[in-house]
Design goal:
- The chain is 37% helix and 24% strand.
- The chain is an alpha+beta fold and 241 residues long.
- It folds into two domains: 163 residues, Beta-Lactamase (2-Layer Sandwich), CATH 3.30.450.20; 55 residues, Winged helix-like DNA-binding domain superfamily/Winged helix DNA-binding domain (Arc Repressor Mutant, subunit A).
- An eight-stranded antiparallel sheet has the order 2-1-5-4-3-6-7-8, sandwiched between helices.
- Helix 6 packs across helix 8, helix 7 packs across helix 8 and helix 8 packs across helix 9.
- The longest helix is centred in the middle third of the chain and has 16 residues.
- It is globular.
Length: 241
Amino acid sequence: MAQHSTNETEEALNDATVKAIQAFARMTYKSIYVLNHEKKEFDYIADNPLFLCGHTVQKVRTMGFNFYAHCVPEEEQGLIRQLTQAGFSFFNALPMEYKKDYTLSCDFHLKHPHIPNLLIRQEVTPLQLTSRGRLSKSICMVSLSTARQAGNITVYTSNPTHCWMYDLMQKNWRRQVNPTFTTKELTVLYATIQGFTVKEIADLLYLAPDTIKFHRKKIMEKCHVHTLTEAIRYVIVHKLL
C-alpha cells in the first residue's frame, strides 16, 4: 500500500484532525485509519476490531504496511500489488488540484481468527499531499463487503454519473457510465432496502405487485446484475442513492 519515498517535509496530523476522526469512528461500525505513505506506517487506527484481525491497535501500528503481508491471504497478495500500482498510476496522472476529489475502493479478504473468509471493502481517499503533489497521507475506511469475491477495484468521485473500473486481466482502467433511475424505481429500491416485500411495496404505492416486480427487473437490468441483492450493492457502492 506504499509507493514512494521523498525528502519533502511531512505535515503531522493535528489534534483537531485526530479528534474529528475519533468522533466519526465512534458513530460507525466501520474501521477508520490513516496511512502514512512516506513512512509506510499507520498514523492513526481506530480500535474497531473489524480491521485489526485479532491484533491490538499497537501491534498493527508496529507492523506498519507489513500488516497487509501478514493479514491478507497469500493468494490475494497479487491483488494488493495491482491495487497499489493501479491506484497510484491513476492518482499520479491527475492534475494536482483534483487529486483530493477521488476515492479508490477494492474488496479483499482478511485473515481473521473468529470470522472465516472475511471479505472487506477498503476505501482510500487522499488526506494530505506534498508540495509536489505526491500522496503523503490518506484516510481509509474498511467495511464488510457485499461482493461475492475479491477484486472490484474502482475509482469514483462525488459525481455519481460515472466511475472508473480496473480490469485485472487487461491491466487497464475503463470509464463506466452509471445508470440513472426514475423516481418510481428509486422509491421501490428504497422500500426494498428497508425490507418491504413486493406486496407491501405495492400497497404503499397503490400499485399492482406485478408493477413492482417490473420496476425491480428494470433496476437489475440497468445495473447489469441478476439479483436484487447485487443491484442494491451496486447502487450503494456507486453512491447512486
